[in-house]
Amino acid sequence: MPSLDLCFSPELLPLYELRGKVAVIVDILRASSTIVTALGEGVSQVFPVASLEECAAYGQQYGGLTAAERDGLPAPGFDLGNSPFGFLDAARPVRGQALIISTTNGTTALRRSLAAEAVVVGAFLNLAAVADFCQRQQRDVLVVCAGWKGRFCLEDTVFGGALAERLAAQGFDVRSSDATLAALHLWEQGRADLPAYLLQSAHVRRLNSLEASQDFEFCLQIDAYANVLPLWQEDRLVDAALNAE
Questions:
Q1: Are 16 and 142 contacting, i.e. CB atoms less than 8 angstroms apart?
Q2: In 10 A of CB 79, how many CB atoms?
Q3: Which stretches of the chain score pLDDT less than 70?
Q4: In the CATH scheme, what is the code of domain 4-232?
Q5: How far apart are CA 205 and CA 207, in angstroms?
Q6: What is the b/e burial string over 11-25, where b = at least 16 CB atoms within 10 angstroms of the residue's CB?
């Protein structure tokens, strides 16, 4: 029976064995939600990089859109910040373009998880696609929460609980890890009104102070991109669901 476990922060990854597992990278606010939206709106591929210098260099190499954020704010000198709404602007066509993105937490978490057998990006926006992929793989799953600068974030862990609930219905063991049990309990508390529940989150308050409350509401939509699955292939993320068609 495959199992699901949670890593609350990338700083804790040395305590986990990634080899042979599916790693689900989650940064609800906002990197994973932005990546899912970008692919859902027609971006051809996504290059998640750790540094701003890499983001600029990849942009020159691949000629795509560059997106960068530090401390919740758009980094100067790039096409976009880290908001899903950057890919919903009719005045800026994104279909068919590559995206190079660097964020404070999410892209770093992904780069640290590449020893896994498969690496996918998860968000509430594509919860169904992530759950379906994990069920098909029939491997142990580790949800890697991006957190905030190495610290625990409520919203990423609540996503882990939502995924655990869906995989439990598919026969996954979600009871052998205290981290997963905690995530399930948090999800059960918040699921009836997720936006109201997560307003308690320090990261939500941080975003709202930056006048990004619209992003917060958007990122909590469940399965708005139910068929989008960002999957790591070689050196980039592609929409595995689209490529399988």
A1: yes
A2: 17
A3: 208-212, 242-245
A4: 3.90.1560.10
A5: 5
A6: ebbeebebeebbbbb
Q: Give the angle subtended at the CA of 241 by the CAs of 33 and 78, to the nearest 5°.
A: 40
What is the rounded CA–CA span in Å between residue 9 and residue 148?
A: 8
DSSP secondary structure letters along 104-170: SSHHHHHHTTTTSSEEEEE-GGGHHHHHHHHHHHTS-EEEEE-TBTTB--HHHHHHHHHHHHHHHTT
Alpha-carbon 72 to chain mean position: 15
Full-model pTM: 0.95
Q: CA-CA distance, 173 to 58, in Å (whole number)?
A: 40
Question: DSSP letter string over 56-110?
Answer: HHHHHHH--EEEEEETTEEPTTSSB-S-GGGGS-TTS--TT-EEEEE-SSHHHHH
Phi, psi of 22 (to 5 degrees): -90, 125
DSSP 8-class letter at 172: -
Q: Which tens digit of pLDDT belongs to each residue from 98-135? A: 999 999 899 999 999 999 999 999 999 999 999 999 99
Q: Is there a contact between 41 and 54 (Cβ–Cβ < 8 Å)? A: no
Give 73's contacts (C-beta < 8 A, 6+ positions apart): 81, 210
